[in-house]
Amino acid sequence: MAFELDGVALVLGASSGFGEAASLELARRGMDIVGVHLDRRATLENAERIAGEIRSMGRRALFFNVNAADPDRRAEVLDGVAREFADKGRSPIRVLLHSLAFGSLKPFIGKDPADRVSQSQMEMTLDVMANSLVYWAQDLVSRELMGQGGRIFAMTSSGGQHVWATYGPVSAAKAALESHVRQLALELAPYGITVNALRAGVTDTPALRKIPGHEEMVELARKRNPFRRLTTPADVAQALAALCLPETYWITGNVIGVDGGEDIVG
Predict the structure, then answer these.
(1) Are the CB atoms for 210 and 105 separated by under 8 Å?
(2) What is the dihedral of CA 165, 158, 169, 194, to 10 degrees?
(3) Predicted pLDDT at 216
(4) What is the pLDDT of residue 139?
(5) Alpha-carbon distance 266 to 261, whole Å?
(6) pLDDT for position 214
(7) What pLDDT does residue 1 have?
(8) What is the pLDDT of residue 266?
């Protein structure tokens, strides 16, 4: 029988890719899910399907279609969490997954300013994909919604250390995200909260398909990976669930590869 978890998981980016897989996996293992996502009408149906699947497992699903990088919307979500899960007592949030994939995919250099990343695009990418992790962690702790035994995870990629055409702004955000993970691990240790980044291998997600030249990235990953296949969202979700076990309390401040060994192959 698969191991079971309890408590509430707060998933940022819950409507697709890693966030979707993690929401469903953690619900299967016994957790209630708070999902934050940003979808237009065309893609909202998938978020509603995910919430429905979670409820069909007998778990609670509280989903918010808001911008996770907006401080007012963050407050709205956390107010909702406090109301919905008041019955669970103090510090109901057991897991936070930061899986936000929204940023600029433009090169740094270009003769035409319209073809290169602007200051506002660079700052937005860093704020959404990196800095927002810090703000969510700050509010969870200050509101006493997460405490002893808490687990914080952030999704990173090999782009934090490797380059790819047009990936510069996101690469910078991933590098910053990994730095934030280390700093948060230091500062949250006294609270009994661990913080780790999960470095997934190349995975066929909606976010990947937005990267210009992603087809080549997929082909190279299949050849490079020792298992000769891409990483899947389920691979990452199952690893994340295992890292939520109480016995993993001494694992913090790391960038953990969940890629079948892809990153070690030159």
Answers:
(1) yes
(2) 170
(3) 87
(4) 98
(5) 11
(6) 84
(7) 53
(8) 65
CATH, domain range 8-259 = 3.40.50.720
Domain regions of the chain by residue span: 8-259
Q: For the segment 191-236, what is each residue's pLDDT rounded down to a tens digit?
A: 999 999 999 999 988 888 888 888 888 898 899 999 999 999 999 9
Question: Cα separation of 60 and 34, whole Å?
Answer: 8
Low-confidence ranges of the chain (pLDDT < 50): none
Q: What is the 3-state secondary structure (H, E, C) of the chain?
A: CCCCCCCEEEEECCCCHHHHHHHHHHHHCCCEEEEEECCCHHHHHHHHHHHHHHHHCCCCEEEEECCCCCHHHHHHHHHHHHHHCHHHCCCCEEEEEECCCCCCCCCCCCCCHHHCCCHHHHHHHHHHHHHHHHHHHHHHHHCCCCCCCCEEEEEEEHHHCCCCCCCHHHHHHHHHHHHHHHHHHHHHHHHCCEEEEEEECCECCHHHHCCCCHHHHHHHHHHHCCCCCCECHHHHHHHHHHHCCHHHCCCCCCEEEECCCHHHCC
Residue 3 has what pLDDT? 86
